[in-house]
Amino acid sequence: MLGRGIREERRRRRLSVRDVSRLANVGLATVHAAETGVVCSLGTYVRLAEALHLHAEFELADPRRREPLTRRAADPVHAAMGEAEATHLRGLGFTVGIDEPFQHYQFAGRADLVAWSTERAALLHIENRTRFPNIQDSFGSFNAKRSYLGPELAARAGIERWHSETHAVVALWSAEVLRTLRCHRSSFASVCPDPEDAFEAWWRGDPPAIGRRSILLLFDPIEALRRGRRRWAVLRDLAGVRPRYRDYADAVAAIQL
């Protein structure tokens, strides 16, 4: 599997075996061996991954006890958040994309949800988070999408540039997430310093005319499409806001009812 991944990424980047050999500082025969499935050292795989701008991850697992990949990858809470957002935004007439792919030179990624209006040249990008197991990785992913996503989607939509861009980290409204936000409030405020006005404008169907904003919200997917209860909270509410769910497992149970 590692060899296949290396070969596919090399071909996608239109590199020769010799190119990868030079970039990774390993022999031609080593690259050939790795690509054809010969077991190499961990150091070799790390060098090849770095040469291809991949992140090397290794797992020690008992294959008899390993869950199927599809089951491990399933995230019903994340899906519920995206479904609530997409349903509402499509109902307002916006174009909506889920798991939208994009690439900027050697950086490739996917945006959880994007919505846009070509008439207003306005873009909304939502990064849904059910938990924050690694805060720095979360910030890195969001910052990359905030930097690279807009120009590619503008070209895809057939416009020169967006007059307004709203980038939002939308986190599950749980006690688990609240603890993380309270412990790292200054860090989150630095990455997402803007008030929720732009997101509320999108939710009303009237996106901002100009400007670029980065926002963080706590979101309740079950209440998102109902009237009466508050749908989200923001960083300035942290001192008094009460969680809607204890943790991720509690949200799963509520969604599956």
Order of helices and strands: HHHHHHEEEHEHHHEEH
| Number of strand segments | 6
Strand content range:
15-25%
- The level of helicity is 40-55%
Number of helices: 11
* Helix-strand makeup class: alpha/beta
Into how many domains do the coordinates divide?
Answer: 2
Mean pLDDT: 86
Q: Going across the major beta sheet, what is the strand order?
A: 1-2-3-4-5-6
Q: Give the CA-CA distance, first to last residue.
A: 38 Å
Radius of gyration: 21 Å
Q: What is the global morphology?
A: globular
Q: Main beta sheet: strand number and arrangement?
A: 6 strands, mixed
Contiguous runs where pLDDT drops below 50 for at least 5 residues: 63-73
Structure in words:
By secondary structure, the chain is an alpha/beta fold. It has two domains: 2-51, Orthogonal Bundle (434 Repressor (Amino-terminal Domain)); 72-256. Helices cover 44% and strands 19% of the residues. It has eleven helices and six strands. The chain has helices at 2-12, 17-24, 28-35, 42-51, 69-73, 76-91, 135-157, 175-183, 185-191, 197-204, 248-256; strands spanning 95-104, 107-117, 122-129, 164-172, 211-219, 232-234. It has a six-stranded mixed sheet, sandwiched between helices. A hairpin with a 2-residue loop joins strand 1 (95-104) and strand 2 (107-117). The longest helix is centred in the middle third of the chain and has 23 residues, at 135-157. The radius of gyration is 21 Å and the shape is globular. The two termini are 38 Å apart. Residues 63-73 have low confidence and may be disordered.
